[in-house]
Design goal:
This protein has 281 residues and is an alpha+beta fold. It is built from eight helices and nine strands. It has a single domain, classed as Jelly Rolls, CATH 2.60.120. Helix content is 25%, strand content 16%. The two termini are 22 Å apart. The model has no long low-confidence stretch (mean pLDDT 95). The structure holds 2-oxoglutaric acid.
């Protein structure tokens, strides 16, 4: 299993940024070659899905369970530049809970170019309403960017830094505008952005001529259910090493989601061996 992981363990500064701001940018998380290869897969999936979903050329395409759509995406599961950050933030008892692709072409020409604020939210579905407050972290997403969103109106994600610590919707002085204190993450292809599920975020509009492509890989504790799968196809699991199988929701016994045995969580064993017993709680 990939020993490169140890080169990219979180620094104190990275952990502090994630804890304080609710997000972390990882530059060059993917090499240009990997970006090119994955973009070919994304374009293929986009063409297939547009047909299947009956979408027009300017429609936004969403595809869930993308990890199973091309073996290349399995590389993202334990990407050495990102995976170690996940252990340091969430620990070893983790799994993939979602992998969704968004391909967002330019809005149709007749659409007003003056719209602001597109669907600000926190992630989490019903738990957001049903959990007592203040909310715990529970999960985070890693967004991998395959288009260049540096420049105005290219669909860069908007966030309110630090808003994961608020226990209510952040203030919005202009009802037609963005949340106050929103920033746009204008980043280049190959960049990954980790964000806490409690962070208030929104998709930016795309009025540019560049199709915006981003793949969201979400990780949660293993005691939550997957959001876009229950069980991965056995033929996919068969291609994976034990740690990837853990991440894809595989396990030995149903009780292992609550009380994992060593066989359920090979990542724990790996961390004990490579980072020491004291690292593993
Ligand atoms: O497309 C985006 O920038 C935001 C996607 C989103 O809201 C999400 O992953 O929860």
């Amino acid at each position: 299993m990939d020993k490169d992981w140890l080169k990219y363990c979180a620094t104190d500064e990275q952990l502090q940024t994630f804890n304080d701001e609710g997000y972390l940018i990882v530059n060059d998380a993917l090499s240009p070659e990997m970006v090119d290869k994955m973009t070919i897969a994304i374009d293929r999936i986009d063409a297939e899905e547009r047909k299947r979903q009956g979408l027009g050329p300017n429609d936004l395409m969403k595809k869930f369970r993308t990890i199973a759509a091309d073996d290349l995406f399995l590389e993202l599961l334990d990407n050495p530049k990102v995976f170690p950050l996940l252990w340091d933030i969430l620990g070893w008892n983790i799994q993939l809970y979602i992998s969704h692709l968004i391909v967002y072409p330019s809005e149709a020409p007749e659409v007003s170019r003056t719209r602001k604020g597109a669907g600000w939210h926190q992630d989490g579905g019903r738990p957001v309403q049903e959990m007592e407050r203040p909310h715990p972290r529970l999960s985070l997403k890693v967004s991998y960017w395959f288009s260049d969103v540096r420049g105005p109106d290219r669909g860069a994600m908007r966030i309110v830094p630090g808003s994961h610590k608020l226990d209510e919707r952040p203030p919005q002085s202009d009802p037609d505008g963005d949340l106050d204190d929103a920033i746009e993450l204008q980043i280049k292809p190959g960049t990954a952005v980790l964000f806490d599920r409690r962070l208030w975020h929104s998709r930016g509009w795309n009025y540019s001529d560049v199709t915006r492509k981003v793949l969201f890989i979400g990780y949660s504790y293993r005691w939550l259910r997957g959001l876009d799968y229950n069980v991965m196809p056995p033929e996919l699991l068969a291609k994976c090493d034990p740690i990837r199988r853990q991440l894809l929701g595989d396990g030995v016994d149903i009780k292992g989601w609550w009380q994992p045995t060593d066989e359920d969580v090979p990542l724990k064993q790996w961390l004990m061996e490579h980072r020491g017993e004291g690292y593993v709680r």
